[in-house]
Design goal:
By secondary structure, this protein is α/β, with parallel strands linked by helices. It is built from 26 helices and 20 strands. The strands form 5 sheets. A 7-stranded mixed sheet has the order 10-16-15-14-13-11-12, sandwiched between helices. The chain is globular.
């Protein structure tokens, strides 16, 4: 028996739900799983930080997955915690926990190729200090010299998690408990080949703009209605910079990949590796590709590998910009033995090219800083705050002129613009599938062969970890297939059209200030992606985002977008305010967090239309015309959030609607969902939790 069966007691005694015909039971198990995951996809959004129905419900479903697992183990959530990890991250976390205080449940034991681990451990066993992986979501606030870390579990789940895979994992545990431990292990009678999964769909006759229009109609959950102040209205997702939805052909590819026999899974992984090489212009004979869970995991891996060897005669330095997302800042900052310096960007988000070259020349040619040498120049391919796309080819030429490697965080670029890694002289590049219409927990790391120090066993572990998520890799491969058939030039043109239209509409809304490029006819507009950040002079950013959701049924993002340094620059946040915020987060975290400065962001994707922009503008005009309290005006003037978000009838209807949707996803009655989500009772039974799931023979932990 595997770990899941051992821990949950599955398969020890016959169950009423078990069927004599295991093939029929397996078919029913897959059908049940697909129904639940399909429902979750209909309202998919990034978790924890977005505003709007999709983000609220996805966050609830994701957090509820922890409760489902603790409930299955009959453990008290007041004493125990579940962390969702890739196999590689789970192993690294286990090494930081004392033996006997954790256990890892694996999606592999279920028979599902999700590449996921649920690490169950006592809360008092969590590691202290700086998390071993840093980046998006791990920090509450970041300043130039310090970072205030989030509480668990966010501190240990760097980057956007595999939300859909996690929901599938938790749901599958319930299904296995009903149908038995072979529910997902019986080979189906018919399966698709890797080639069919990746290249066959119902839209093969279409390409270009025609295919794009049909893909809009095939968005999972497209047109879904949600509660608003004026009744039910269709939901509009304008948070594509955080995470994208997916299309019906991608979802069908995932359903087929679930059933793919193990001997065929490696073929699919190889096919997608080749597809990525072609899509990114990184020939396989000159670039290596490692599948990861997301961009954050990829950058952490590269940053740790920059640590100098004992015999090195230099101190490595990394040069990036104030444009960066935390995922391309914190991993370099906290890499052992590595110094980080930053080059300025202007208020439109463009790096200072002359300053960048000057710093490189001083370090690597003039040797004005002793033995410090800039080994890597790293930039975001597109800003997640301003949409700015730096000239990657020019930065590469400057970096190489001074013998530095060039690395690109392409999380915000890969799904929106054509990338040619080799032609632009890019030595390393990281990307995430969940920003490319494949939200199933897969990303990638491309590295030019021979330029990065070999790390042997650690590299092999990361490769095996990423390749275990076959469904995520299948989704990524199918999404790339669709994007190539549409054409990245068509994608860029469509998104530029919406961005120009939105900028024109915003110019006529009183009290609304756009940051970055504001003129749709600017000569720099071609270097701006489909991201617009703004503020309202009379409303705090979190209240403005809340009203967009409640009045217009529009999902957006507010805050600092995990790009604290850039947002603080744009808002002219003084160092004294940074210091006060840091102190507040240490001694009064709840109230301080509710007051932090920020902006509102809208970001367009392939599902969006001119009608979406029109409703956004109409809703913003309505919000701008509403009277505001003196407190709200003051908080908006200081760019702060408000802790006084009213509990409106709309919000209560949204919560009730979300609770019903969550019940359907997890196949529970509503009272069961609430019990799992809010469960406060202690472990019931004569046996202690430790003796139930933490016996020595079941623990694979090692001493730190």
């Amino acid at each position: 028996m595997g770990m899941i069966e051992n821990t949950l007691g599955i398969g020890r005694v016959p169950r009423a739900g078990d069927s004599p015909d295991q093939s029929c039971a397996s078919a029913e198990a897959y059908a049940s799983l697909e129904t639940s995951v399909g429902l979750a996809l209909e309202t998919y959004g990034n978790v924890h930080r977005g505003r709007g129905y999709n983000s609220w419900l996805s966050t609830r479903l994701y957090e509820q997955a922890r409760g489902v697992i603790l409930d299955a183990l009959d453990l008290d959530p007041g004493r125990f915690m579940v962390l969702f990890c890739t196999p590689a991250r789970a192993e690294a976390l286990e090494a930081c926990v004392k033996p006997g205080r954790s256990i890892t449940l694996s999606s592999r034991d279920l028979g599902l190729p999700l590449g996921l681990r649920a690490l169950v451990l006592r809360k008092d066993a969590l590691p202290k200090g700086t998390p071993f992986q840093t980046g998006g979501g791990t920090a509450r606030i970041v300043s130039r010299r310090s970072a205030i870390w989030e509480d668990a579990p966010d501190r240990f789940e760097a980057g956007t998690p595999a939300v859909i895979n996690t929901i599938a994992f938790a749901r599958a545990i319930g299904i296995v408990r009903r149908f038995g431990n072979k529910a997902f292990k019986i080979p189906p009678r018919t399966t698709a080949t890797a080639s069919e999964i990746l290249h066959q769909d119902d839209l093969l006759e279409f390409s270009g703009g025609d295919l794009l229009r049909r893909l809009r109609q095939s968005v999972i959950g497209g047109g879904r209605v949600v509660p608003t102040a004026a009744g039910f209205n269709s939901f509009i997702n304008l948070d594509n910079s955080a995470s994208t939805p997916t299309f019906d052909p991608v979802w069908k590819a995932v359903c087929r990949a679930w059933r793919l026999p193990e001997d065929q899974q490696s073929i699919l992984v190889a096919r997608v590796r080749d597809a990525c090489s072609g899509f990114f212009g990184a020939p396989a004979d000159r670039y290596d590709l490692i599948f990861t869970s997301n961009t954050t995991e990829a950058i952490n891996f590269v940053a740790k590998g920059l640590t100098p060897e004992p015999a090195a005669d230099f101190e490595p330095v990394v040069l990036n910009t104030f444009l960066e997302h935390n995922s391309n800042e914190l991993p370099w900052r906290f890499a052992e033995g590595v110094a980080l310096i930053r080059t300025p960007v202007d208020d439109e988000g463009f790096p200072d090219m002359r300053g960048l070259e000057r710093v490189l020349r001083e370090h690597n040619q003039d040797r004005a800083h002793g033995i410090k040498r800039i080994r890597v120049v790293t930039v975001s391919g597109a800003s997640n705050v301003l949409g700015t796309c730096p000239d990657l080819g020019e930065i590469s030429r400057i970096a190489h002129r001074y013998q530095a490697l060039f690395f690109v965080d392409a999380a915000q670029l890969a799904g929106h613009r054509k990338i040619n890694v080799e032609a632009d002289g890019i030595d390393g590049l990281a990307f995430s599938g969940h920003k490319m219409y494949a939200p199933f927990g897969t990303g990638g790391l491309l590295m030019r062969k021979g330029l990065w120090r070999s790390r042997g066993d650690e590299t092999r572990k990361l490769m095996a970890s990423g390749e275990e998520n076959v469904v995520g890799i299948a989704a990524l491969g199918k999404a790339i297939d669709l994007l190539q058939r549409v054409g990245m030039d068509v994608v860029r043109e469509e998104e530029q059209k919406l961005t120009r239209l939105a900028l024109r509409e915003f110019a006529g809304i009183p009290g609304l200030k756009v940051y970055g490029i504001t003129d749709p006819n600017s000569p720099h507009i071609e270097s701006k992606g489909s991201v617009i950040s703004f503020g309202l002079k009379h409303l705090p950013h979190n209240l403005a985002a809340e009203k967009l959701a409640e009045i217009g049924g529009i999902g957006v993002r507010n805050g600092c977008f995990c790009s604290h340094l850039l947002v603080k620059q744009l808002l002219h946040i003084r160092p004294v305010r940074e210091t006060l915020a840091n102190l507040g987060l240490k001694f009064a975290p709840r109230i301080t967090k509710s007051l932090l400065p920020g902006l509102v962001r809208v970001s367009f994707g392939l599902e969006n239309t001119e009608g979406d922009v029109a409703r956004l503008a109409e809703t913003l005009k309505e919000i701008a015309a509403e009277p505001s309290s003196p407190v709200d005006k003051f908080l908006a003037w200081t760019h702060n959030a408000t802790p006084f978000i009213p509990q409106t009838d709309v919000h209560r209807r949204v919560e009730a609607h979300a609770e019903n949707a969550a019940a359907r996803v997890y196949g529970m009655l509503e009272n069961d969902v609430q019990r799992v989500y809010d469960r406060k009772s202690t472990f019931s039974g004569a046996i202690s939790p430790a003796s139930l799931i933490f016996p020595a023979q079941r623990c694979c932990c090692r001493k730190h």
